[in-house]
Amino acid sequence: MAGKTLLRTWLKTCLKTRLTGGKALTPAVVVACLTGLALTGNAAFAATRFAPPDYIGSLDPNLIWEILLGGFVVLSFLAAVVVWVVSAFRRVQRQQLRRDTFVSSAFNHLGQGVVILDADRRLLFCNERYLDIYGLKRSEIFKGITSTGLRELRSARGTLDAESVEFFAHPMPKGSFVATLPDARSVVVKVNPLPNGGFIGIHEECTEQRKLAQELESTKKFLEMVVDNIPVALIVQNVEDGRYLLANRGSEAVINRRREDITGLTTEDIFNAREAKLIVSRDQAAIHKRGMISEEHPISTEAGLRLFLTRRVTVLGDGGAPQYLIKTYEDVTDRRQTEARMAHMAYHDGLTDLPNRPAFMQALAQMIEACGNVAEEFAVLSIDVDGLKEINDVFGYAIGDKVLIEVGQRIQGAAGGGVVARLGGDEFGLIIDGKQPQGGRAIAERIAELLGHQFSIDGKSVRAGVTIGISLFPRDGTDAAALLANAGAALFRAKATSRGSISIFEPEMDQQLRDRRLLHQDLSAAIHNGELSLHYQPQARAGQTVVDDDITGFEALARWIHPSRGFVPPGEFIPLAEESGLIVEMGEWILRQACVEAASWPVPLQIAVNLSPAQFMHGDLVGLVHSILFDTGLQPGRLELEITEGVLIEDFERGLALLRRLKALGVRISMDDFGSGYSSLTYLQAFPFDKIKIDRAFVTNLGHNPQSAAIVRAVIGLGHGLDVSIVAEGVETQEQPSFLAKEGCDGVQGYFIGRPAPIGQYAGLIGRTPAVRDVERKAG
Known about the structure:
This protein has 780 residues and is of the alpha+beta class. The chain folds into 5 domains: 2-103, no CATH class; 111-210, PAS domain (Beta-Lactamase, 2-Layer Sandwich); 230-337, PAS domain (Beta-Lactamase); 347-505, Alpha-Beta Plaits, CATH 3.30.70.270; 523-779, EAL domain (TIM Barrel, Alpha-Beta Barrel). β12 and β13 form a beta hairpin.
C-alpha cells in the first residue's frame, strides 16, 4: 500500500509540474514511467515465481510491493533520462539546422559575394552572389575544393583576373584590391583572416561605381584644368569669414604668391593694410548689392603696375543669404593700350598720322558750333597734291608715300595752328580762322610756296605742287558737309583752270556739282536706254610702218551719247561709274556686246575688253565670262581681258585665284598700264600674263625724257625674259613706232594706228564690206 501511495504521489508531482509549465515531464517520460511500471511488475512476478516456495511464503507482501515499486521507479527514471537526452539532441539538431538555413539564406541574399576558406584554403562556404559574379555553378563546387580550384574554374569561365592571381600568390593574403575582369567589369575584393587560420573574402561588383568615380575624377580634372586655364584670375571667398576657398593659376599675377598658399587666408593676410582695406570695402559693396560690380584699377604685379578689370559676383545660399563671393581679375593693360591706338587710328591717317576725314568733319562741326553765335568767320581749304601719280610712276609708291608725309608736315608748318587732315589719297583739308577770305587765301599761297620747292627723298629730288579750293563760313554753308563739298567744288574749278591755282567757291560752282550728280543719275538710265555704244581701237604688230596686215585685234571702248548733253567724254562718266558701282553692270554689257561683235567677224582677230577691279569684287565674274563665251560662240583664245594692278591690290589672293580660273577658260589675260604702280613686278612673278601693255605716260615722253626711254627698254627686256608679249599704248607719232620696233616691242596701239571708232569704219580689216555691214544692220 505504501508503494502504491508513493507511485501515485510521484505521478501527481510529475503531472503537476507538467501542468504548471515545467519541462520535467513530457509525453515520452509518461510512457517511460508506464513502461517501467510494467517491467517492474514483471520482474517482481519472476522473482516470486522462481524463488523457493518456503522463501516466498516467508516474504512480507508489503516488502514485495516496495521492491516492485522501487524497481519501477529506478527503471522509469533511467528511461526518462534516455528519452530526455534523445529529445534534447534532436532539438539541438533542429535548432542548428534552422540556424544554418537562416545563415545560408542571409548570405545568399547579400549583394556581395562571400567565400570562406579554412586554414588549408579549402572551401567551407560560398554564396550565390559569389557564383553569379564569376559565372560559376553550384554543381561545379565539390566538397573540399580549394581556392586554386576556384581560380581554375574562373579561368575556364573567362572571369579570372590578373590582380587576383597576383594577390593570392602571397602566403598570407590580407587587405583589399580592385579586380578588373576580362569582360571589363570591376570587383572590389576584401580579404580578412579568421581566428582558426582560415579566410573570409567579400567580393562586390563596382563597375558602375568605378565608372562613375572615374567620370567624376575626369570631370574634376577637367574642371580644374578649365579653371586653371581661364584667361583671367579667378578667386572664390567665403562670405561668412572672408577666407579664400579657391584660386586658379591666373590669380598668381594678382596675389603675388602661389594659389595653394592662399587657401584659408583672408584679404588682410595677403595684402598690405592699405590695399586690404580698399579690397574689403569693394568686396562688401558687391556683397551688399548681391549682383555684379565691375571696375578698373591698377594693381602692382611682378611685371610692374598693370591695369585690371575686376568683376565681383555674389552667390546666394539656399536661404537667400550671401554665401560666396566670386572675383575675377582681367589684365586689360594691353587691351586698353590697343583700344587707345585703335581710337587714334580711327581718327588719324595711318601714313601721315594726321587727323583723317571723320576727325576733320568732327572738328569742322565743332568749329561751326563755336563760331555760330559770335559772328566769326573761318575758311575750309581742300588741297590736292599735284604730280603724285607721276612720282609714283617714276619712283614707286614708297617714295610717293614719303612725299605725302612731307607734304602733310609742310602744310602743318604753314597752317599756323589750323586743323590739318588727310582726307584721302592725295587730298588734304585745312580749317583756318580769322578774317576771310584774306586769311584763307594767305595761308593757301604760303602752302603753295612751301610745296613748290623740291623734295629730297632718299637722295632723289622730286617736285610736287598743290591745287587748292576754298569755302568760307558762314557765307558758303552752315554745316560741315556743305562747307567741305563747296571747298571741293572750288578745287574742281581750280583743277579745270590750271594745276597749281587757288580758287574760292562761287555760287555757280554749286551748279557744277549738281550737274555732276545729275550726270550720275543719267548714267544709270543710259545703260538701260541704249545710250551706250562701243568704239573699237585697232592694235597692230610693231614695225617701221604699219599696214592692214599688221592689225592683230581691237580694244573695245565704251562711249556715251547723252540725249541732251551729247557726247560725254569717257574721262567723265567712267570715274562716275567706278565711284557708284555702276561699272559692274556696265562692264557686263560691254563684255557681252564686244563678244557678240567679235564672233561675227569673218577674220578671227583678237578682241580686248577692260575689266574693272569692282567686277572682281562683286558677282561671279568667271561664271559670267563662261556664259558669255557659250552664248556668243566666241572662241576663248580670241578674248583678251585687260586688268590693272588695282584688281590685285584690293585682295591679292582672291584676285589671283580669279585670274587663274579665267585663264583656265582659255582666255588671254593682259596687264594694262604697266609701270604705273609699284607692285607690278610682284604680280608678274605671281601670275603668267599673256601680254603687258606699257602705260602711255612713258610712250608719250619718248624722245623727250631719257628716263621714259630707259623704262620702255627695261619693260621690253623684262617681257622677253618672261616670254610675255609687250604692247605700247599711246603711240601717236611716226618716231614712236620706229623706236619701239627697234627695241623689239611686239605690238602698238594709239592714234597713229587708228582712233577709237564704230566697227563699221574698220569693216575691211575684219573681212566685211561696208555694204554687207549695212544690210546686216538693217536686217537686224
